[in-house]
Amino acid sequence: MNRFAGRVVAITGTGDGQGRVAARRFAAEGALVVGADLDAAAAALTEKLVRDDGREMLSVAGVDLTDEADVVRFVGAAADRHGRIDLLYNNAAAARLGDVTHTSEADFDFTFRGVARIPWLLTKHAVPHLRAGTDPAIVNTASVSGIVGAGMVGNAPLLAAYGAAKAAVIRLSQICAVELAASGIRVNCISPGLIDTPAVAGILGTGVDDRLRGWHEEQTLVGRIGTPDDVVSAAMFLLSSDASYITGHNLVVDGGWVASGGAGRPHRDVVEALEASLAAGLRY
Ligand SMILES: NC(=O)c1ccc[n+]([C@@H]2O[C@H](COP(=O)([O-])OP(=O)(O)OC[C@H]3O[C@@H](n4cnc5c(N)ncnc54)[C@H](O)[C@@H]3O)[C@@H](O)[C@H]2O)c1
User: Fold this and answer.
1) What is the pLDDT of residues 70-119, one digit of tens each?
2) Does residue 236 lie in a domain region?
3) Pocket lining: 35 vs ligand 1, CB cutoff 6 Å
4) Is residue 2 part of a domain?
5) Which end of the chain is less congested by CB atoms within 10 angstroms, N or C?
6) Does the record's keyword annotation contain Ribosomal protein (predicted)?
7) Does some domain include residue 3?
8) Coil, strand or helix: which one is 269?
9) How far is the CA of 57 from the centre of ligand 1 (A)?
10) 276: Cβ–Cβ under 8 A, 6 or more apart, which residues?
């Protein structure tokens, strides 16, 4: 497929995880990718991978996207190179996890800056360039923890600031969809469940306690942890012309975690016990 031939796509957080996969996949479909990351070495590796794929991308590395001047530098670099931005994929985020009572003021502020401030700043400064684009659209990245109070196996209390900040991203997306409609800019959001990236190696207990991965898998209906490709596929759909009638939507990409209430697939023992109970004539 070549859905993005000649389209200018600005992607944040291209140094690792989902952002790296996004840079490679958009470039593979003909997009003119402009990426940004705080981590210059990681961003350089992504650039090399894209070149090894036989494609090109412009990488603006060493930018802190919580900083307004750096955001202006990034979107300015994209516009200088290509004269416009067609699509904005707000992927980058950084957070510090903790429960309500133990989250420090510094960690709370860091998380809100790293999660909610970045897509707002990017949208603010990309919009003038998006208005110069063709069929412009934005996708923001929230999380299932912005939708429900839980979000971890065992309801581990880690997501106080992160979940609240991701809820802000969902609402920001809806507000932007309304405010930018007159400019012809569609705005959607993605809420991933647990996605296997280096960022969540601790949550998956990689190499330390492999039961954690199994527990997470059991909580989904699909029966596995998500991959960066799962999320990027959804973002590509929302940023493509196939989604031209979709705006203000929050697409949950979680293997059915939210739909099952985090309880996963029907449990055979429980189902059998219920069937026996109902067969005995008890009421619902
Ligand atoms: N991995 C998951 O389980 C999961 C689940 C739900 C939502 N998400 C969201 O998906 C998105 C991508 O997550 P990921 O797992 O790929 O993360 P990641 O940590 O692997 O990648 C994020 C990238 O963003 C960059 N970045 C962070 N802060 C930055 C800043 N201030 N300026 C510039 N670059 C910055 C990092 O350097 C990193 O390269 C994030 O918004 C994250 O909150 C992830």
Assistant:
1) 999 999 999 999 999 999 999 999 999 999 999 999 999 999 999 999 99
2) yes
3) no
4) no
5) C
6) no
7) no
8) helix
9) 19
10) none
